[in-house]
Amino acid sequence: MVPMCDVTLQYQELKAEIDAAMQSVAAAGNYILGPQVKALEAELAAMCETPHAVGVASGTDALHLVLRAAGIGPGDEVVTTAFTFVATTEAIGMVGATPVFADIDPRTFNIDPAAIEAAITPRTKAIIPVHLFGQPCDMDRIMAIAKRHGLLVVEDCCQALGATWKGRPVGSIGDAGCFSFFPSKNLGGFGDGGLVTTNSKELFTSVEMLRRHGGRVKYHHEVLGLNSRLDELQAAILRIKLTRLNDWNEARRRHAATYNRMLANSPNIQRPVELTESGKHCWMGLAISGGSPLMESVYGQYTILVDNRDAVCNELSKAKIGHAVYYPVPLHLQEVHQNLGMKTGSLPHTEAAATRCLSLPMFPQLEVSQQRESVEALQRACEQSRVRAA
Ligand SMILES: *Cc1c(COP(=O)(O)O)cnc(C)c1O
């Protein structure tokens, strides 16, 4: 038995400190936007190398509030990927704008900059690149496109806190970065939470106001806001976990490298690749075609591509090996987006990834013996389903 993810191990590692932090919040009585939220905002702004950070109620709200703060609304188009969690397009829909999907780079699963360029119309106002599975998008090319067309760039960093592109933290490259503290993310609370990072004083002020009923001063409301605050209690918990985040991210990278080695002789399993200089790819730390990596992924997930994916999943379930499919139905084919009129075949790389993707157990405390057990079961499952399909 190997779990896909076990968030209780983080708690066990830090139990004494987390329990004390929770008790001190309970005793202090300052439960909404208190000193813990302020301190976490400062710590994450420092880590992400942005002057501003605002805690909000979820990653979904982080995306939604940034789009609202930027004045994006009905009639506007936002270019993004269909290979992501639905929250990315929910945020676009919540401000009344329309998502326009660009296909992915089949090797990195991230939005393909060339496809972004092709999706731009006179109505395009913003791009939301999603750093999927913890791996940064090609931010040089995306920022160049945005500059050329005068577009806002909102980085969906919900799976990628601590990842870097050319040494720069995600969330500091675009106009804003949106983070989630959902329990299974690499920095997860005991409930929902989110955060916006930005270099822009205007976006900061506006999101700050929107999250608390549209006002800077209590009972004085300047714009139509909402209630979207990060809990003081969650902030206190997250601050304790944050002290371990670099080590945990390092452990995830180590596990990814271990999986890569264990799968090196499985030609039918495509391992995750990282971008290197001049658009080449490599397996973590191991150049395929020269050049050093441009990015440091935090491996929120370790996601491979296999044939006969659903049969492989069945075998893994029987062997009690945790696994997950992120995401089985790409957003352009979801019922909620039927009004866009996009047909099967319109985003071939996205659809192929959705059909073949499979994520393996990944959490900081994962042991090499568990990785071996998972990979052996996976190789058996692939072989069995190949024979059966033939
Ligand atoms: C988790 C996630 C979100 C939403 O975050 P919540 O905190 O659950 O609202 C948005 N985008 C991506 C890519 C995510 O993985």
Automatic annotation (TrEMBL):
Keywords: Pyridoxal phosphate
GO annotation (BP), single: polysaccharide biosynthetic process
Active site (catalytic residues): 185 (proton acceptor)
Recorded superkingdom: Bacteria
Transmembrane intervals: none
SUPFAM superfamilies, alphabetized: PLP-dependent transferases
UniProt GO molecular function: pyridoxal phosphate binding; transaminase activity
Modified residues (N6-(pyridoxal phosphate)lysine): 185
Entry's family note: Belongs to the DegT/DnrJ/EryC1 family.
Protein name stated in the entry: dTDP-4-amino-4,6-dideoxygalactose transaminase
Organism from which the protein derives: Planctomicrobium piriforme
